[in-house]
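Async update (no meeting this week)

Hi team, since we skipped the sync, here's where things stand on the single-chain job. The sequence we agreed to prioritize is pasted below, unchanged from the tracker. I ran it this morning and attached the output directly underneath so nobody has to dig for it. Comments welcome in thread, and please keep replies under the output.
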Amino acid sequence: MDEAALFRLLSWLSPAFPVGAFSYSHGLEWAIEVGLVREEASLRAWLEDLLAHGTLAQDACLAALAHRAVECDDRAGFAELRALAAALPPTAELLLETTAQAGAFARTVLAAWPDRAERIRSYLAEPEEPPALVFPLAVAAATAAHGVPRRAALLALVHASTSNLVSAAMRLVPLGQSTGQRVLAALEGAVLDAVARAERARLEELGTGSLVLDWCSLRHETQYTRLFRS
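Output:
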């Protein structure tokens, strides 16, 4: 990967990039409310499950497939994947989380980063009708079009999503900074495994097995006191 591509990747998946990721907990707020996540060990276990069987793993697979489609300029394949990806979130809040971030990501990338060949504008365009773009596909389209290798893009995406949930737990449990970093360090192998599986993924293998997350997301919709949008 050349330095320009690395610079873009670091910028786009930085916590400072304006997608509003800090405002979403991905159902974690309810899990903490009811005691499913209480401290370092239970947070690590929760995130390991999401990386192995849940939405973090699925997002990595979606991004891998989308990155490949954009590299090949397979617009029909990307459109099919876009429709499927928009149907996968099991709750309204999880759908909002991924589509709102995708929209913010796409608008910022198109406004601030030159696309002189107009290669990705059609991939990132917001349609007048559904399906909306989801976050992993937005990241995949931008990174593929700007020459970021697939594995690096996947690693940055999964790391950013995992880090955001660790940050949310640090505020909600609460956990100290050092504890949060211990959790993230302990998840290194799980993140790398998720990326490796995503690189080999086929479309028919998409799916999750994280029913408790789905339940927590549904309950969060009516949670009385909350800090996060999901």
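Quick observations from my side:
The mean pLDDT is 94.
The longest helix spans residues 150-172.
Reply here if anything looks off.
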